[in-house]
Amino acid sequence: MTKWEYFITPLPLHTPGQVLNMHGEEGWELVQIATAPNGTGSVAYMKREKSS
Questions:
Q1: Within 13 A of 20's CA, how many CA atoms are on the CB side?
Q2: Strand pairing of 4-11 and 42-49?
Q3: Lowest CB count within 10 Å: 3, 34, 42, 46, which one?
Q4: Which Pfam families is this protein grouped with (predicted)?
Q5: b or e along 23-48 (b: 16 or more beta carbons within 10 Å of the residue's beta carbon)?
Q6: Domain ranges in the chain?
Q7: Per-residue pLDDT tens over the stretch 10-46
C-alpha cells in the first residue's frame, strides 16, 4: 500500500508559481488550492509518496 505525507503552504499573491515550482522540485504534488483560513490569500495542499 502506498503511504503519503502531506504539506500545507501559504501562496504569496506575487509569486505563487515560484512557490509551487520549488515544492514540485522537492517531489510535492499539488492536490488543491483553497482560501486561507484567515481569508487573506490562498494555501496549497500538497502530497508526496512517503519514503520508507
A1: 16
A2: antiparallel
A3: 3
A4: DUF4177
A5: beeeebeeeeeeeeeeeeeebbebee
A6: 4-49
A7: 999 899 999 999 999 999 999 999 998 888 889 999 9
Question: 35 φ, ψ to 5°?
Answer: -65, 135
Look up residue 48 and give its three cell numbers: 508526496
Environment class of 9 (CB within 10 Å of its CB; exposed 0-12, middle 13-18, buried 19+): middle
CA–CA gap between residue 35 and residue 43 (Å, rounded): 6
Q: How far apart are CA 18 and CA 28, in angstroms?
A: 13
User: Does the pTM of the predicted model rise above 0.70?
Assistant: yes
